[in-house]
Amino acid sequence: MRIVFKEDSQTFHLYNDQISYIMTVLRDGQMGQLYFGKRIRDREDFSWLLESLPRPMSSCTFEDNKAFSLDHLKQEYPSYGTGDYRMPAVEVLQENGSRISRFVYRGHRILEGKPKLEGLPATYTEDDGEAQTLVLTLEDEVTHLVAELSYTLFAKGAVLARSVRFLNGGGEVLHLTTAMSLCLDLPDHNWDFVQFSGAWARERHLKVRRLEEGIQSVGSRRGHSSHEHNPFVILKRPGADEFQGEAVGLAFVYSGNFLAQAEVGSHGTTRVLMGIHPDSFDWKLEPGETFQTPEAVLAYTDRGLNALSQTFHSLFRKRLARGYWRDRERPILINNWEATYMDFDEEKILGIARKAKECGVELFVLDDGWFGERCCEHAGLGDWTANRDRLPDGIEGLSRRIGEMGMKFGLWFEPEMVNRDSDLFRAHPDWILHVPGRPSAHGRFQYVLDFSRKEVVDCIYGMMEKILSEAEISYIKWDMNRSITECYSPALPADRQGEVFHRYILGVYDLYERLTEKFPHILFESCASGGARFDPGMLYYAPQAWTSDDTDAAERLKIQHGTSYCYPVSSMGSHVSTSPNHQTGRATPLHTRANAAYFGTFGYELDLNTLTEEEQAQVKEQIRFMKAYRRLFQFGTFYRLESPFAGNVTGWMVVSEDRREAVAGWFRMLAGPNQPYTRMRLAGLDPDLVYNVTVRRVTERPFGQFGGDELMYAGLVTSDATSGEVPGGEGLLDFESRLFLLKAEE
Ligand code: DGJ
């Protein structure tokens, strides 16, 4: 890994053994982008990569030159108003009303390791040798606004982390109205734009469209990253697939409003921008004040999308997630939400917990309904003390009893919200985000606390800290069940209202930081009505997230498949729930529900007492199995083999680091008569090893012995599962699935 600066050609080359990133200082002093992609050999001068021809109608910078036009030059951090008509990375409103700026190169530093981003989640290093960081200092000549562009190059992995820090070095008050974390000008537009979109209960579905001239983008203006679009996109070559081809992935380490955009210009280049959504963003910078953008992570592959995902998985699992649970196998939990909703008392809860313990579950999680006057969605949020009618000895008593059973105890909170019918709201009606004199919209009958105010965050911290200190709590599910409306803070002046969305998220991060610091052994699972805040920012505080409220196994295949493009298996909360499923009404076999949930953190979301004895025995066996295999599932290398977005079959696989062990999952949606022969080609194995393969449905049986080469190149035969002739008629069942367990011969 090296970051080099060539004085003569004014060129920066950042490279490791996989990628190169090259920039240069342009003739006008601004930074130009020359190359991002597969590693190329270093040389003194890469100026041939700076394409610039005279173009009719272009605005030109120099009187003696018709070719130098910002309209079509590839730039590193383009600003508004001096001849580049594409969307800028930065726009600054000045005291005279002008929004025009021009950031020129002033100097740079190269640091070992990676500096922290104050108050924001970000990737990190544990040792300075793991990365180098280039900080480019740019300055707007007129206002003296300084922009420090940071580029961290990791020694391992085809990945770069970027962010920008602004410092108002001049004497006037400025307003940043656009401050993107990353701009990447690519030389052509032969790309597919891949996004992960949907809605509640169908998050992160894979969508692919061809880039065309003009702007294509996804984003959120809801105050959280959203069910609708994920702050992760891929540009892939049209021919690229899971196993071959070129792609660039961009992930935004942030949990609020975002924009991920690709703009194809009229001369065929593509500008990619990623950052805080500029709509309703306006950050005031007094002289001497600074603003730090969140981080964006940029990865590259020329070996297909599985390789790109593995780069993100490895970085996010090891150098974005933090703390005690980062590398630990996650406890198998039971959550009472779908078993009881808010209709429970202590006896009912203990009954569910007892049966779960008998089956081998390790952690009991008490969901919504335990606090204040929380009888229904209309009341209680904000009052984080136990409801004594339901829990006579409080959380302290319940957690002790669960502990005595030999299980850990976890608790649900929704810290950012309040109901009107709550003591907190009665005491502080002005603590919600609202515009005085205007009505406020509700979402699920709740209102959003103004987390841009420190006293609000302090108060919620105080209540949570008390419970966590008094009771025996090992896990927190942190929920967030509505989007923001009336984003206005009466505590801020008029000219700072454009800061509220971002200040709100900073308040959320602050609360997370304080709680994770004070209670380092608590496992946090983030959640937002399922997966509305499943983003890289959250992973920094909570190493796992509730993937979706949709627990239907068939739907989960799509949701977890889409999620896997960016996020590691160890981050995906996935549970077995009852059948027929509460979200879809669909009935699926118990083993298929478990087979889908193993590719995640694994747990149950039902009352096991309601199962037959035979089913309970199956659950015990599932838990035994997961305990034996969870390290492999959660920390192995994950491959997508077959896509639920492409056909009737889904294939997933995890492989151990030494490639001696693997599990492949095969899932078939609908059965059909007299089906064609089918095979599933495995991946990631050692072609020279011989593997003993066992097939697991409800129970396990030997399947055969095969070479790694046979399994990868010829494929595993799955046809017997599609025939109605096999014993038990399994081949004719809808939503059938199997796991293939592979162990290398000694
Ligand atoms: C939404 C979550 O996604 C569910 O799992 C559950 O915790 C409910 N909220 C509780 O209100």
Q: What would you say this structure looks like, in words?
A:
- By secondary structure, the chain is α+β, with helices and mostly antiparallel strands.
- Among the domains are: 2-319, Distorted Sandwich (Beta-galactosidase, Chain A, domain 5), CATH 2.70.98.60; 642-744, Immunoglobulin-like (Sandwich), CATH 2.60.40.
- Helices cover 19% and strands 31% of the residues.
- Strands 6, 7, 8, 9, 11, 12, 14, 15, 19 and 20 form a 10-stranded antiparallel beta sheet that branches. A 9-stranded parallel beta sheet has the order 29-28-27-26-23-22-21-31-30. Strands 5, 10, 13, 16, 17 and 18 form a 6-stranded antiparallel beta sheet that branches.
- A hairpin with a 5-residue loop joins strand 16 (258-264) and strand 17.
- Helix 10 packs parallel to helix 11.
- The longest helix is centred in the last third of the chain and has 23 residues, at 613-635.
- The radius of gyration is 27 Å and the shape is globular.
- It starts with a strand and ends with a strand.
- Bound molecules: (2R,3S,4R,5S)-2-(hydroxymethyl)piperidine-3,4,5-triol.
- The site of (2R,3S,4R,5S)-2-(hydroxymethyl)piperidine-3,4,5-triol has 11 residues, from loops.
- Belongs to the glycosyl hydrolase.
- InterPro entries: Aldolase_TIM, Alpga-gal_N_sf, Alpha-glycosidase_related, GH, Glyco_hydro_36, Glyco_hydro_36_C, Glyco_hydro_36_N, Glyco_hydro_b.
- It comes from Mordavella massiliensis.
